[in-house]
Structure of DUF305 domain-containing protein:
Amino acid sequence: MTLKNRLLTLGGAVTLALTLAACGGGTEEAGDPVAETTTATAGTTATSSGAPADGEVDAAHNDADTMFAQMMIVHHEGAIEMADLAVEKAGSEEVRTLAEGISAAQGPEIEQMTSWLEAWGEDSAPMGGMEGHGGMDMEGMSQEEAMAELEGLSGAEFDQRFLELMIAHHQGAVEMSETELADGENPQALELAQKIIDDQQAEIAEMEQMLESL
C-alpha cells in the first residue's frame, strides 16, 4: 500500500471515530433536559403542598377556633395560678410535683395560642370577657373564689381541695376542647384540642387516685 493510501485510510478512521463520539455526546445532552425537568417537577411537588412550615401559623380559622384560643388562654392562666400556689403550699411532694408539671405544660401552650391570635388578627380576649362561657367554673366557683379558698388552707386539707378543684378545672378544659373538635377548622387548633383532652384526662385519672390515697 502506498503512503498516500495509508494516509487516506488513517484519515477515514479518525473521521469515523469523531463522528461516533459526537453521536454519543448528543445522546447524553438529549437526556439532560429530561432529568432536569424531572428534578424541577419533583421540587415543585414537594413545596406546593400548602402546609405551613414548622413554626408558622396556619391562617385558616373560624370563630370557633378564635373562641377556643381566647378562652383556653384564660383557662390555662387560671390553672397555672392554682398550680403555682400548690407548689408553695402543698402538704405532699406528690401534689407539688403534679402542680409543677401542670404549670410547665400549660405555659408553652399559652404562648402557642397567643401567636395564633396575633397571626389571625384577633383579640387576645373574647368579646364580653369570660362570663357565661362553659368550662370556666369549678364546682360553681369562679377563679377568684377558688383561689381565696385555697389560700386559706394548708397541709392535707389544701391537697384535697386543690385536687378536687383542679379535677373540675381540667374537666372544663376537656369540655372546651371537645367543642373545638366539633366546630373548629384550623388544623393546629384541632391538634392542640385533642392533645389537651388526652393530657388532662390522664391527669384527672392521676388526681382521682391521689384523692383516694389521702
In short: The domain at 63-213 is CATH 1.20.1260.10 (Ferritin). The two ends are 116 Å apart (CA to CA).
